[in-house]
Amino acid sequence: MKTTRYEKKAGKIFSVMGNPFRIKLLLTIGRGEACVCHLKALLGKRQAFISQHLMALRKAGLLETRREGKYVYYHLSNLDTLDVIRKAGVVAGLGDIALDNFESPDFLPTCPCPKCANKTIVRVSEIKKMDTTKKDVQV
After folding, report:
1. Which of 26, 92, 109, 132 has the most Cβ atoms closer than 10 angstroms to its Cβ?
2. In CATH, what is the architecture of 5-104?
3. Which residues contact 125 (CB under 8 A, 6 or more apart)?
4. Taking a C-beta distance cutoff of 8 angstroms, is the pair 75, 64 a contact?
């Protein structure tokens, strides 16, 4: 019996997603986007290690990129990827969990990318004290 194109493509996706760190990357990127320096700050791994895994996920069509200056931002090419991961957990007997908690934060103070560098951490108690009508206030 001949292997179909569908079986080959689906097999490739499962093969690439079979690595636990790649699953962690996909969950971290979640429904947003992140640059390598953002992922490095979040996951505590070397840039080269992260980049190798991102390249494999991108080649498999699971990630897409957007360039902003010298920074490349990664995002899921299809949000159904999160459903596949969730369903794999169900099949593995881990139960049906909400994956929304795995989304990366909007910014990290230790990340040098343009999305993070111009923002500051604001505590909830300080928000009431701020004049939010000013355009330069970032929360």
Report:
1. 26
2. Orthogonal Bundle (1.10)
3. none
4. yes
- For residue 19 the two structure tokens come to 């690595």
Task: List, for residues 11-20, the tens digit of each pLDDT value.
Answer: 999 999 999 9
Cβ 122 vs Cβ 106: under 8 Å: no
The percent of the chain in helix, strand and coil, each rounded to the nearest 5, is 50, 10, 40
Distance of CA 54 to the CA centre of its chain: 10
Q: What is the pTM of this model?
A: 0.74
Q: Which two tokens stand for residue 75?
A: 């995002």
Radius of gyration of the chain (CA): 18
The pLDDT tens digits for 58-116 are 999 999 999 988 889 999 999 999 999 999 988 988 887 766 555 455 666 677 777 77
- Where along the chain do its domains lie? 5-104
